[in-house]
Specification:
This protein is mostly helical. It has 9 helices and 3 strands. The protein has 2 domains: 133 residues, Helix Hairpins; 115 residues, minor pseudopilin epsh fold. It binds manganese (II) ion. The site of manganese (II) ion (MN) has 7 residues, from helix 3.
Length: 257
């Protein structure tokens, strides 16, 4: 189990995405396998999926769950390599640095820097969690990527957006209209049990409190520029062809309990 102090650090500054993902992260359990048929027995995401080491109090970069070129031609191999090995790795390092600096403050450092390092923690840890989800939310078309969600999630989408096509159109518009770097997410607002589409600026801002992330697309330019340049719309279209709806359904089932 992680230490009390670390957990408190995490909770005060988490985005909703972070809080929901970490809730199931205390105990390492078998990770969900993307693209598999049927319902998985383990949690969709575990502490192991986030590379969380409770002894060190640090995260580690989890391996990409498929080859760099697995999502070709929709997402190119070079983008996947740089995105995972450089960008995601930097968020992991940034989260660990923020945790370390906050621990130093607790041991007598400058408490005036709590705001700075808490903001750093929110940005980088959200980046780590977002990307860990992002890789698992995609699968090659030959292994289940693309298409539509199965009946349970599909019914909820139809209930809350009118039709699957209307959901896709709104989600795509939300993704295209993110100002600068950020994400579009399908989330479950767990108190009312309603699905929403929201935007997230940078890695963490504008995420409604408590919402559970189900499906998110990274629309930072580093996610698509090598292949799509300024054509974010074409990137979103290509990305929908590799969405692993089985994993989205797993997150939905887990969030709906
Ligand atoms: Mn990214």
């Amino acid at each position: 189990m992680q230490g009390t102090l670390n957990r408190r650090d995490l909770l005060v500054s988490f985005t909703a995405a972070g809080a929901s993902a970490i809730a199931g992260a205390a105990v390492a359990q078998p990770a969900f396998s993307p693209g598999t048929a049927g319902k998985p027995s383990g949690p969709c995401l575990s502490g192991a999926a986030l590379g969380w080491n409770p002894d060190k109090g640090q995260y580690a970069l989890p391996p990409l769950p498929y080859a760099f070129n697995a999502l070709e031609p929709h997402i190119d191999a070079k983008t996947m390599e740089v995105h995972h090995d450089k960008h995601h790795a930097a968020y992991v390092a940034g989260a660990n640095k923020a945790l370390l600096e906050l621990s130093r403050i607790r041991e007598g450092g400058d408490a005036g820097l709590v705001k700075h390092w808490t903001r750093e923690l929110s940005f980088h840890l959200s980046g780590h969690i977002n990307h860990t989800l992002f890789w698992k939310l995609m699968a090659p078309p030959s292994k289940g990527g693309g298409g539509q969600p199965s009946s349970g999630l599909l019914s909820a989408i139809e209930r809350d957006f009118g039709a699957f096509e209307k959901f896709v159109a709104q989600f795509k518009a939300a993704a295209i209209q993110v100002e600068g770097g950020g994400w579009a997410w399908l989330v479950l607002e767990p108190i009312s049990g309603r699905l929403l589409i929201v935007q997230q600026e940078k890695q963490q801002d504008m995420f409604p409190t408590g919402c559970r992330p189900l499906l998110g697309i990274d629309v930072w330019e580093h996610a698509y520029y090598l292949k799509y340049q300024n054509q974010r719309s074409a990137y979103v279209d290509g990305w929908f062809k590799v969405v692993d709806w089985t994993f989205v359904q797993c997150l939905f089932d887990e969030s709906s309990r």
